[in-house]
């Protein structure tokens, strides 16, 4: 336990209900200011890209608006952000943003502002690459020893390294014996790519070997192709570390020494660039992220390692030099240089707590006040009290002196979802095989309290849902004016959605030219994707939810799926999804339990989520604050893995799949242990474990 807490130099909370991970944080002089002052770049799984220029604030003060240089929504989840020399013809720094199926490179620039809010920043798309495979992570560097340029290497979820020489795609290579993607780093000293495989081995591959190996894009299974194609991809060196790795970092703080740092689940390794162990440190805690940085002592390297117990440990090689307490569990940590302070520790948590802090202690500035021994003058006290009461009365009379626009948002956007489905479906080009695909109307109202320039509306729903129109552009709005748009949402693709949520976002400029954004969320009805059906008595997958309250009649909580004539006797409901599958919901007559069952594991998620939501809303109306749902069964990991296997069977040929079967038998328990450790670290509630698993099942399908 640390005696000291990390000193908060600057901090903020990013968005609402956004998720972040290891690759979502980067620090660099991304706008090429030349001052040596880093900017903080953050991307989120909701697609928001933010760039900050932090300045110190006093304790208790809020972050200044001008600290946020740029905020833009890219409409696709951001997996990783990096800054490097990614554009040909210039050695300026550019920003690379990795999405699931796309790589985008932007130029970040600022223009001198003519208002009190300072400079205006914008990003310009330099080029993009559409990926044929789902990306996992990326690394960059001067591949092949090029000078003044950086190339990019992306690792896909199925084990392919895709290399891009700036605006051009170079080649792709499959890693041998691949099962699950691991961390990836590039060593410029040896011109090698270093990763950790599912066999718990650190593996190094030379760039030249990758370049002359068999081209993954042209790989065939015929014997003739095997004889005439390039060389087989061979590993340069291998080191078995006996555990999964969380991250890899290659550092070289002088010309002679290069080290490969690997953060495992329980150990911390430092390797030479030929794979030999320089030193290792056994950790007595569960680490979450790390970053090496330059040490003041020659021949040593300092490392920051954060843990799931909210501790930040500072090591010089294997010696613990300092330990400090953090306010949250970071998923990424960096070291940055700002204008007023060098070596600032930048941390980012999975829920968006971004903090810049430093180590050490602050001196106590408290001084005991002098004792005032003079006698009390009651007449002066009464006169002062009357004066204060007069000031209070005047303030009460003029409390509405500020204009309304100063106290409330300039522009508000609201979304109203129709309680009934459209009488005539508005579905367009739907791939659903059902006879009739329903749609529901969403009415969106934009209310402006001030003059607004260039307003535009974007409506987002998650695939496979779609809207009849997702972009609207309006003329300039006058004060106290409004705009109303009506659109419909429907199921476009022939699969069930992972959630029934949508977002409306209005972007606009106020008269001073400052851009603003206002948004709201809306929920879609369950009957948009399914309709009542006869309950099934048998099913392959079953889940039982325990509650601490007597069961509620389905007529009360599911009036849109139950015939009112059945009264309180309805204790079974059938949900027929438009995609053809069916899910059954049962309520126990003798216990406080509900059962959800279906022939497909992924179909349990939406009904279970809807059940819990409606139960919580019901008891909230009853002013019941102690209602709780729990799950006491075993997490269906076996079924989850079988679903993943079936998913990859469609992508892998039969010969490749047979080769992986023997490896999976050995590695299955390692994967299971990693998942259980993840659930344990995230939240202790078993029901939330199940929620996470089922929602992940949906997204995998």
From TrEMBL:
Residues 436-522 form the PTHB1 GAE domain. Residues 371-398 form a coiled coil. The keyword Glycoprotein does not apply. One of its GO terms (biological process) is cilium assembly. GO terms for cellular component: BBSome; membrane. Keywords: Coiled coil. Residues 634-701 form the PTHB1 hairpin domain. Residues 1-363 form the PTHB1 N-terminal domain. This is PTHB1 protein. It comes from Dicaeum eximium.
